[in-house]
Every structure is written in structure tokens, then in C-alpha cells.
Specification:
Strand order of the largest sheet: 3-4-2-1-5-6-7
CATH superfamily of the largest domain: TPP-binding domain
Shape: elongated
Helix content: 40-55%
CATH class of the largest domain: Alpha Beta
Largest sheet: 7 strands, parallel
CATH architecture of the largest domain: 3-Layer(aba) Sandwich
Radius of gyration: 27 Å
CATH topology of the largest domain: Rossmann fold
Distance between the termini: 13 Å
Structural class: alpha/beta
């Protein structure tokens, strides 16, 4: 499991991760698997679906028995895959990750719907061969429906005739998948490796490249559980067969990630998302004054800290707080253009707050939603300074906006690093964390340094140490 998490996380950071989804991924949303889809068809031709392993052949038998008429098959696909879907935690996590290529044999629209509605991504869906030559401008992800789509149920790949004619009618899907399997690290989830198309494609790649040069891929497999068997001989047989199947998958560069329960898959995906977000750091703060630091000292502190973070390939998020944001931007831009080939978008996310609106209530509501999305996007929240001028009293007060970001970071289980040495709200947050250090055990060895230290290099060293430790959690 650790090897999978490490390697897939690396692929995500290199933007070379892919996902292949099978029917098991949709089961959590209430959709049927292959056996349930074909159960009525099996009854109609006098067979028992539980006894059948060749489900493609079963679908063909039904088609033959119906005088080679696809109407009832198409109707069944539409009725089963247009039902209201239940919440799908795994899909939500996956849609949040920077996966740009999705392949699926599923007919339903769960993947593209979740990408649009949950992750707010622009999705280019490839349902037919004709779709492959058209590029959706500004797309965030591509979803390849290699077996068709519920909206085109009459063209779905389901019977043996469809599989045998696949390379004649859908050759470009095969070519595209071969290219992705060679260039990306795939996670297979909810997938049966009995699909003849996929095994053919994997075999072709293995033959072309050889076993030694095949790209590593991963799949989740639930271990055979003895408690679910009445007969020990059946358990031993299925366990042996599973071990042989896992060994055989290695020929195609697919490593099995064994889990005891399906819930373990969700936990693994959560860990990957958490560790991926550790690369994104929110610098939260504002300053009308810098307390016992001069403006020059404070600006250099923020500037140098930002440069150090980007030098180590962290991505900086800033809400452009007064007296803070401009120095964050300066440090980021200089480091990016000097040492990161000017790739600003890869290392800096400026998110200035909306301040003006015709309606005060509307401004507050938008700011709250905006602040929530700002914090949600990061994995680490660093708090510096945090003060503002109170317009009514004319006095300097701690910034409530910075405190709101701390509360959100706490609720969302972000890694919280208050630099108490900068004073104001950052010191107030430091006081809270110090008083509840058991909840922030990752700060235990750094807490005093964060209170006293004002040199950016030394603060960065502590931040780096904290994040490295959290990656191993």
C-alpha cells in the first residue's frame, strides 16, 4: 500500500496519473454490476447468472434468442443507468485530484457529473470515435467512454459481436488507450480484469515494449475472506485463484494493492489527497503595522520565506492580505522567473478577496464562500502577523479574517503552522495551538522556535521538517 501511495502521488505531481474505472466504482452510487444487469436476460434464456463466468457470451446468447434485436438490451441499459445516484465518496476524492485522463467501461455518467458538479472542472467526454478528433477548449479532464454511453445505448459494447468488431469500429479508442497506458501511471478501480478488450490492449503493449519496459500501474483487489465461506475448500480454491490472478497481472505491469475491506480504498485515497495537498501552502495574514519588526525586516521575512518555499517546489496560495500579499507575490515571482522557467501558474495561486459590491450582505456572503474555497485548496496554512486598522476607533486590532481562516483550516484538518514571532493574530493562534499541543503533535518539536524565531531561513527549516513528517503519516 505504501509503495502505491508513494508512486501514484509522484505521478499526480508530475501530471502523469490516469484512472481506469470499472463497474465497482459505480456500485457505491447504487448502480448495478454486470451480473445484475444481465440477470433478467439469463432467466429469459434459461440460465443462472451466478453460474456464468462468460458474461459477454451470456449477453450474446440473449441477443441471438431475441432474433438479433438490441431494443431490450438498450432499454435495460437506459433504465439501470439513469437512476438518481447516491453519494460516492471515492469519486469525490478522485475528482479533486489532478487526474486529467479517465478511462471507463461504464455506461453511466457518474465520472463526468462528479467532475463538473463536485470538482467544478470542465470535462471533455469521448463517447464515440467521432468525438476523439474534437478538442473541448479549456478542458480540465478527458473522460473516455470506451464501451459507450447511456445516451447512446444502442451503440453500447456489450455482446460478443461488439467485442469482436471493436478494433474495426473503435480502433481509435484502442490506439488512444495504448498511448495513455504507455505514458501514464494508471489506477484501476472497481474493474474486472476479465474484460477482453482491456486484456487485449495490455497484451499488445506488453508484446511491443516487453515486460521490463511496461509502465507501472496499480489496481485495488479485496482479499478473499474466509469468514464469507461456508465451505473451507471453496475458500482455499478462490484464494489460490486470486493469488494466481494477482501474479498474472504482473505480466502487464499491474501491481495489486490488496485491501481487507472496500472502506480501505477510501482511506487510501484520502491519504493520497491529504499528501498531495501538502504541496499547496496558504500564507494567511494581513498587516497595517509589523509590531517590533520594521517594514523592511517584515517585508524581507515574507519575501525570503516565500522564495524558500517555491525553491523547494511548494505551490503558494495568497489571499493578497494588506501588507503581506505584495511581498508574497514579489518573492514568488522573482524565484519563479530566476529558477522555475517562469512557470507562474505551477507555483503561485493569487486569490485576492472581493471587497466591493452594491450590497454589503452580498459581499459578506461571497467573501465567506471565497475564503472557504481558499482554505480548502491548500494542505498547509501558515499564519503571519494578522492585524488591521479599526476604522471606528482608529486603533490597531487583530484581524478577524485571519482568525476565520484558522477556524476553517482547523475544521478541514489542514496542517496549521502559526508563526507566533510575528505577533498579533498569528501569536493568538500560536497561543491556542500551544495550549492544545496534543491536537497539534506535529508542532511539538517546533513550537518554541515558531514563537521566537524571526529569520526566514530558520522558520523555513521548521516548516520543511513539519511537512516532511506529515508526509509519512
Amino acid at each position: 500500500m505504501k509503495e502505491f501511495e508513494r508512486e501514484y502521488l509522484k505521478a499526480l505531481q508530475e501530471e502523469s496519473a490516469g484512472l481506469f474505472a470499472g463497474a465497482g466504482l459505480s456500485r457505491a452510487s447504487g448502480y448495478v454490476n454486470w451480473k445484475e444487469l444481465l440477470r433478467e436476460f439469463a432467466d429469459d434464456v434459461g440460465l443462472e447468472v451466478e453460474k456464468e463466468n462468460d458474461l459477454v457470451g451470456l449477453a450474446q446468447y440473449y441477443y441471438n434468442a431475441k432474433g438479433k434485436n438490441r431494443t431490450s438490451i438498450s432499454s435495460k441499459i437506459v433504465s439501470e443507468f439513469t437512476k438518481d445516484a447516491k453519494n460516492n465518496e471515492n469519486l469525490k476524492i478522485l475528482s479533486t485530484l489532478p487526474i486529467k485522463v479517465y478511462w471507463t467501461t461504464n455506461y453511466d455518467t457518474l465520472i463526468e457529473d462528479t467532475l463538473r458538479d463536485w470538482a467544478n472542472k470542465k470535462v471533455d467526454v469521448k463517447r464515440t470515435v467521432e468525438n476523439l478528433s474534437i478538442t473541448l477548449p479549456g478542458r480540465d479532464a478527458i473522460v473516455y467512454k470506451m464501451h459507450g454511453d447511456v445516451s447512446l445505448s444502442h451503440e453500447a459494447v456489450i455482446i460478443r459481436d461488439d467485442y469482436e468488431a471493436y478494433n474495426e469500429k473503435r480502433q481509435l479508442f484502442t490506439t488512444s488507450l495504448q498511448g495513455d497506458l504507455v505514458s501514464k501511471t494508471f489506477l484501476f478501480i472497481g474493474f474486472s480484469f476479465e474484460d477482453p478488450n482491456l486484456m487485449y490492449i495490455l497484451s499488445r503493449i506488453r508484446i511491443l515494449l516487453g515486460e521490463e519496459h511496461t509502465r507501472p500501474h496499480y489496481c485495488f483487489i479485496r482479499e478473499v475472506n474466509e469468514k464469507e465461506y461456508d465451505n473451507k475448500e471453496d475458500y482455499i480454491y478462490d484464494k489460490t485463484k486470486q493469488e494466481l490472478r494477482v501474479q498474472d497481472l504482473g505480466r502487464y505491469g499491474i501491481s495489486a494493492v490488496m485491501v481487507k475491506e472496500y472502506e480501505d480504498i477510501t482511506e487510501a485515497l484520502k491519504r493520497i489527497l491529504f499528501k498531495h495537498k501538502l504541496k499547496k501552502i496558504l500564507i494567511s495574514g494581513s498587516a497595517e503595522t509589523y509590531g517590533d519588526m520594521s517594514t523592511e525586516e517584515a517585508s524581507q521575512f515574507i519575501y525570503n520565506l516565500t522564495r524558500q518555499l517555491i525553491k523547494r517546489d511548494f505551490k503558494i496560495i495568497t489571499g493578497f492580505g494588506k501588507g503581506i500579499g505584495s511581498y508574497v507575490i514579489s518573492g514568488a515571482i522573482e524565484e519563479i522567473f530566476e529558477n522555475k522557467y517562469g512557470h507562474v501558474g505551477e507555483y503561485l495561486i493569487p486569490r485576492p478577496f472581493p471587497f466591493l459590491s452594491l450590497k454589503e450582505k452580498q459581499t459578506i456572503e461571497i467573501s465567506e464562500k471565497y475564503r472557504k474555497s481558499l482554505v480548502n485548496d491548500c494542505g498547509v496554512a501558515i499564519f503571519v502577523f494578522g492585524n488591521k486598522l479599526d476604522e471606528e476607533s482608529g486603533k490597531i486590532v487583530n484581524a478577524n479574517g485571519v482568525y476565520e481562516e484558522f477556524k476553517l483550516a482547523k475544521e478541514m484538518n489542514k496542517v496549521i503552522i502559526p508563526i507566533g514571532s510575528t505577533g498579533f493574530m498569528a501569536k493568538e493562534i500560536w497561543d491556542y495551538v500551544n495550549s492544545n499541543i496534543d491536537e497539534y503533535d506535529y508542532l511539538r518539536d517546533s513550537i518554541e522556535i515558531l514563537k521566537e524565531e524571526k529569520e526566514a531561513d530558520k522558520i523555513f527549516a521548521e516548516i520543511s521538517k513539519i511537512i516532511t513528517m506529515m508526509k509519512g503519516v
